[in-house]
Amino acid sequence: MSVEREIRELIAQQSGVPLLRIHRDSRIAEDLGVSGTDAVDLFSRISGRYKVDLTLLWKRWDRHFLAGGIAVRGYVLIFAILAATAFLAFWLGDTLHLGDAGAILLWAMFAAMALAPLRHALPRRKPVPIRVQEITEAVARGRWQ
C-alpha cells in the first residue's frame, strides 16, 4: 500500500469523510473538516507513525488553523477591552448612581466605541490550506517545509 493511501486512510479515520472523497488536492480543514484538536491529533499520529519532524508546522500552526479568522492575540485584545470597559462602566454607573441597567447601558456604549476601530485593525487572515499532497511530501522528506 502506498504512503499516500495510508495517509488518506488516517485522514478518513480522523475526519469521518469516506476515503473515496479524499484526494491529493483535498484541503485538510476546508474540504475535510479537520481542524482544532482533530488536526493536532492527525498530525501527531502522522509524526509518530512516519517519524516526520513537524517542528516548522507547529511553529506556523496559526497560519493554517485560525480561530474564526482572527489570531488568538486578537481575542485576548478584545477580551481585555471588554473587561476594561465593563470596569469603567460599572464604576461610573455606581459613582453616578445609575443602577445596574444604567451601568450596563454605559458598558454597551463604551464597548461599542472601543471595539469599533478594531474592526479594521485586527488581522483577519484566511488560513493557508494544507493539502493531502503536502502531507505526503513531508512524509517522503521526513520533515515539514
TrEMBL record:
Protein name: Acyl carrier protein
Keywords on record: Membrane, Transmembrane, Transmembrane helix
Taxon lineage: Bacteria, Pseudomonadati, Pseudomonadota, Alphaproteobacteria, Sphingomonadales
Record-annotated membrane-spanning stretches: 65-92, 104-122
